[in-house]
Amino acid sequence: MRKPFIVANWKMHKNVQESVDFVKQIKSKLPDPNKMEVGIAAQAFALPSMVEAAGNSGLRIIAQNAAAEYSGPYTGEVSLRGLADAGVSYVMLGHIERRRLFGETNASVHKKVQAALQRGITPIICTDETMVQQVVNNEIHYVFHQLMTVLHGVSLDQIKRVVISYEPSWAVGAGQHANPTLAEEGCRLIRQTIAEYYSYEIADKIRILYGGSVNPNNIKDIIDKPDIDGALIGRASLDLDNFLKMISNAQLTLKEE
């Protein structure tokens, strides 16, 4: 059984005090971390203070990005070594906004994924719906070319530690209703692709999140789908009560198992 994972992506919102206050208010209201994980991806300058505020509550504090290099003359970059020292255990990589606005490529994200895995930080690899058809033994297979390029060279042991977030470009930041059926189909095809490149046993263990216009009204229907193991939530996670409601609605899927 894959443990559900609910992640807030605050993007470039909230200062240090706002971030810490949010953590202090939410940490005692979280579900059992053995049954469901909850995390917050915040701006780099707030992460150490958030880790301290979270304590042993089980709340995951997540970096939104990191450099492939651990140190050196890379002004403005975020070091994985520094994140690890600060107690950060997850990092988002390849978010669609990083690709659109800052020109990140499959090659650059690939390097970051390798560096994170080597540093002991779990990458949450974001991918959109880019996929190609391949015919194998007269059968059509859908392959997520973007994702598999990023995962190239990731070993069998390493892939087990990876979390994937499926973010269709038409849904990210659009504010429209997410379609659970389409979300499930994308996540199912990702799992199928991983199974064909690695094994069905490994694919069955990897958590795949859905990101794109997730809100309190649709999160349960989305996470109820068999291949969706959680959600990466943007603007809807900025309000404390709203985020808690989404966590609560996501927990309903556990009660019905």
UniProtKB/TrEMBL annotation:
Residues that coordinate or bind substrate: N9, W10, K11, G173, S213
Pfam family of the protein (one): TIM
Protein family according to the UniProt entry: Belongs to the triosephosphate isomerase family.
Gene name of the record: tpiA
Main subcellular location: cytoplasm
Keywords: Cytoplasm, Gluconeogenesis, Glycolysis, Isomerase
Record protein name field: Triosephosphate isomerase
Location of the active site: H95 (electrophile), E167 (proton acceptor)
E.C. code: 5.3.1.1
SUPFAM superfamilies, per database record: Triosephosphate isomerase (TIM)
Classification lineage: Bacteria, Bacillati, Bacillota, Bacilli, Lactobacillales
Single annotated GO MF: triose-phosphate isomerase activity
